[in-house]
């Protein structure tokens, strides 16, 4: 089939095994949409299905399998100008119907306003050209993602598409999640104004059109609904912001609403849905940072501005919410107290400091390596960066300890690369302080008597850059000048596995080599000379092992690696 676009209406019987290949000479990709699939509802997916392959035959990569229980509208896109699909049916004597629409397209061309990412708590979007007729051969995907703890309510103000009982030609599909595989909430066409609600903080909306009968399309808006129970107020702290949720009914009990609230910086306004939310950056909106006695705290104040009854008196209670985040060991402690005249309410919660570790291609630290596991050569230079994800520009990351282990649980043996800020390996080079990044490089090695995997773990300290007496400012100390156990802002990062390149090629042949060696051994006669030789070898092995164990005990864990 070589048409630029075509609709296939397939009526299938029992025991079918049919294969179709779609192709076109020009270099374009194929999008195939199975907008209506009616297979045996009692059939098993193994015996009745539609399989779609990327290429000119069923030997190409499998793009997906369609069964009767699929809860989505299957759409497949080829990587080249050919696509193949195969339909199998079982022995049940029922009628099956499949509607397939396909067309050729180019990834280089796009339709303005066709899809996008919506990240605000509320918003609106329309089909391309709305209220004019929508474009032909359009496949638009909108991803809606709101903050954690919210659901999404989607309201279509108008839908005007081609009418069809099964919505085979032009349709809107709404999915309960972040992708088109998340579970179909609804599929609509024709005219209407339906409403949908997600079960989580993400929703996906798809518009698919064919080559004929274009109408106005649609107009939609969405709003967020906070789902977690908040009787009065709640606070969570992250590496970049403080998040305060205030119940509207709690405000109403004092005669206030969201218009009466302001932070230290009154230009920072809250988001309003069924609750009032302040997302307060750690370095903006009047947030005050305080550093004392190995502790960093961030504080802001939500003030309720009352409308006075007169210039002299007011009958509304004076209310303040003092929001305070204090950094603690490998986490943040969140403290919020509310002053209501002379009444103070305290709330405490826990959070995590957000750090990550990655390998990079060079000492420019521009392109992170995404492979996992990462295969390297012995003695290859590796570039490592630990990053702190925070909005506070005055924090620095200090690499206190970095060690390697052949296992992810960092049980013995381990090998120190950095200890107390000092390089402990002859090839390890620690870079100067660089804001939110701690960096070092070393040459790859492997552990003796262990698998060739190596994991890295770094313990970092996070200090205020304006504090000349902080541990970060001291750098390497051979003898610890200050006990860091009292430092509250600490975090761990783990990276791995890193493996030798030769292990990737050898792993597939290890079983073959083992079997060949065993077969050769069995073919040799086991005479007295072999027995004597075996005894001598065994005695030598015991002697060598004894010496190695003694040396191993004396040297500890600092030399259990092999350098090229």
TrEMBL record:
Task: Name the keywords, alphabetized.
Answer: Cytoplasmic vesicle, Disulfide bond, Glycoprotein, Membrane, Repeat, Signal, Transmembrane, Transmembrane helix
Q: What is its main location?
A: membrane
- Presence of the UniProt keyword Transmembrane helix in the record: yes
Subcellular localization: Cytoplasmic vesicle, Secretory vesicle membrane
Q: Gene3D superfamilies attached here?
A: Spermadhesin, CUB domain, Zona pellucida, ZP-C domain, Zona pellucida, ZP-N domain
- GO CC, alphabetical: transport vesicle membrane
All copies of the ZP domain together span 236-479
Q: Which domain of life, per UniProt?
A: Eukaryota
Annotated CUB domain ranges read: 1-106, 114-225
Task: Check the record and name the InterPro entries matching this protein.
Answer: CUB_dom (IPR000859), Sperma_CUB_dom_sf (IPR035914), ZP-C (IPR055355), ZP-C_dom (IPR042235), ZP-N (IPR055356), ZP_chr (IPR048290), ZP_dom (IPR001507)
Q: Where are the transmembrane segments?
A: 531-553
How this chain sits in the membrane, per its record, is: Single-pass membrane protein
The protein depicted here goes by the name: CUB and zona pellucida-like domain-containing protein 1
Look up and give the organism this protein is from: Sciurus carolinensis (Eastern gray squirrel)
């Amino acid at each position: 089939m070589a048409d630029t676009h075509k609709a296939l209406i397939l009526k299938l019987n029992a025991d079918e095994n049919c294969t179709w290949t779609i192709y076109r000479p020009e270099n374009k990709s194929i999008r195939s949409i199975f907008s209506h699939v009616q297979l045996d509802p009692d059939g098993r997916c193994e015996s009745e299905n539609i399989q779609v392959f990327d290429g000119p035959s069923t030997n190409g990569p499998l793009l997906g399998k369609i069964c009767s229980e699929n809860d989505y509208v299957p759409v497949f896109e080829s990587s080249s100008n050919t696509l193949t699909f195969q339909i199998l049916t079982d022995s049940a004597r029922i009628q099956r119907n499949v509607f397939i629409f396909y067309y050729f397209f180019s990834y280089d061309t796009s339709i303005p306003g066709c899809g996008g990412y919506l990240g605000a708590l509320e918003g609106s979007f329309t089909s391309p050209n709305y209220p004019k007729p929508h474009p032909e051969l359009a496949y638009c995907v909108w991803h809606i993602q709101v903050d954690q703890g919210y659901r999404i309510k989607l309201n279509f103000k108008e839908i005007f598409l081609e009418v069809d009982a099964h919505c085979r030609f032009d349709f809107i599909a709404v999915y309960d999640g972040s992708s088109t595989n998340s579970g179909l909430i609804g599929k609509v066409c024709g005219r209407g104004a339906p409403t949908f609600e997600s079960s989580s903080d993400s929703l996906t909306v798809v518009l698919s059109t064919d080559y004929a009968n274009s109408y106005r399309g649609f107009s939609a808006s969405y709003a967020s609904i906070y789902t977690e129970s908040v009787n009065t107020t709640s606070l969570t702290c992250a590496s970049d912001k403080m998040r305060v949720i205030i119940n509207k009914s709690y405000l109403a009990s004092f005669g206030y609403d969201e218009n009466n609230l302001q932070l230290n910086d009154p230009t920072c306004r809250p988001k309003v849905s069924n609750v009032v939310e302040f997302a307060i950056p750690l370095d903006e909106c009047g947030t005050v940072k305080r550093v004392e006695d190995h502790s960093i705290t961030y504080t802001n104040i939500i003030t309720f501005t009352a409308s006075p009854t007169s210039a002299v008196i007011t009958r509304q209670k004076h209310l303040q919410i003092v929001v305070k985040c204090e950094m603690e060991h490998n986490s943040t402690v969140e403290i919020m107290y509310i002053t209501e005249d002379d009444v103070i309410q305290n709330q405490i919660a826990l959070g995590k400091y957000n750090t990550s570790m990655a390998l990079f291609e060079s000492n420019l630290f521009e392109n992170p390596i995404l492979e996992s596991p990462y295969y390297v050569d012995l003695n290859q230079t590796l570039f490592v960066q630990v990053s702190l994800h925070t909005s506070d520009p005055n924090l620095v990351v200090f690499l206190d300890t970095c060690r390697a282990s052949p296992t992810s649980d960092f049980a013995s043996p381990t090998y120190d690369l950095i200890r107390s800020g000092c390089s402990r390996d002859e090839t390890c080079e620690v870079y100067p302080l660089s804001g939110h990044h701690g960096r070092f490089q070393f040459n790859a090695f492997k552990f003796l008597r262990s698998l060739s995997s190596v994991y890295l773990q770094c313990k970092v300290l996070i200090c205020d850059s304006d504090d000349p007496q902080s541990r970060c400012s001291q750098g390497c100390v051979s003898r610890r000048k200050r006990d860091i156990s009292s430092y509250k802002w600490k975090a761990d990062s783990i990276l791995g596995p890193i493996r030798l390149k030769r292990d990737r090629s050898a792993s597939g042949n290890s079983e073959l080599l083992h079997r060949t060696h065993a077969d050769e051994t069995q073919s040799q006669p086991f005479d007295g000379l072999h027995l004597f030789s075996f005894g001598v070898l065994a005695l030598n092995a015991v002697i060598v092992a004894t010496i190695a164990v003694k040396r191993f005990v004396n040297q500890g864990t600092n030399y259990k690696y092999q350098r090229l």
